[in-house]
Amino acid sequence: MQRELEFKLKHITLRGMGFGDSNKPMILALHGWLDNAASFAPLAPYLADYYVLAIDLAGHGLSDHRSPDAHYHLLDFVYDLHELVEIQGWQRFVLMGHSLGAIIASLYASSFTERVDRLICIEALGPLTKSATTSASQLRESILNRLNLSTSPSTRPKTIARVINARAFVGELSVSSAELLVRRNTSERDGQLFYRTDRRLRTVSALRMTEEQARAFVSSIVCPVLLITGDKGFETFASEIKDRMTRLDLGQHVCCSGNHHVHMDNPTDVALKVVNFLE
Question: AB hydrolase-1 domain: from which residue to which, for each copy (predicted)?
């Protein structure tokens, strides 16, 4: 069973998808950058003993965009998550995230240890980092990038098929997986296609954490952690992840066959690892 969900926060409305029986133990799922809740549609049927509640992060999928005077800072996603948890009254739950969602989940689990029973991270553990010496240039690039975006015209997709094929190529994922993401990230009005995702999501981050900060966050996670990576997944910070894993008291790392979207293109293998971890 699959249904659409809506959650009104104080300043934004988030939407998402519920998979399975809501009376079963909940897995709260967070998708990756420029993806959406449909990212977990291939995996959810294999987790029949759980209720998978997948959220569209702000600016993604069917969720609201942030106001024109706001932006998409990493820590604001963590804020949204906790406001959602508080409003819904969720006391203890399994938290699962992919890529950006895994970064957000890691930060949340380290800061609100009393809420997260177990943490499942797919293709990320903790934030992307840069040396503190790059901070000034990072901020400069971010500001110039945002100003440039604000004055440049937005683009519209010409055909849904073209967008799906481009998403599959760029993301190195199957066409069927790309279609799930694209269908939820686009809309049609008066015969014309539009992107639902907020284009401000594509701007350069204003600041990156340092590796020292990232290690401190990961070290603060007290629940059992499962890290799942694809054997052909992102290697952007593979060495950092190895170090971060050593800072977990209850961490395990498993590898599945697949690329960055391994949970979409190889859901059976990923689900087996998840179920074994949760049991």
Answer: 25-136
Active site residues: 99
Render pLDDT for 126-171 as a digit per residue (tens, 0 to 9): 999 999 999 999 999 999 999 999 888 888 888 999 999 999 999 9
Burial of 193 (0-12, 13-18, 19+ CB in 10 A): middle
Q: How many CB atoms lie within 10 A of CB 237?
A: 18
Tell me the C-alpha distance between 199 and 187, whole Å: 14
Q: Residues 59, 66: contact at Cβ < 8 Å?
A: yes
For residue 201, how far is the Cα from the chain centroid? 13
Report how far residue 191's alpha carbon sits from residue 2's, in angstroms, rounded to the nearest whole number: 28
Q: Which domains are delineated in the chain?
A: 2-133+210-278 (3.40.50.1820)
**Mean pLDDT of the 34-53 span:** 98
Closest CA to 142 of 132, 153, 152, 150: 150
CA nearest to 53, candidates 8, 109, 9, 14: 14
CA-CA distance, 193 to 159, in Å (whole number)? 7
**Residue 234: is its pLDDT beyond 90?**
no
pTM of the model: 0.96
Q: What is the DSSP letter of 250?
A: T
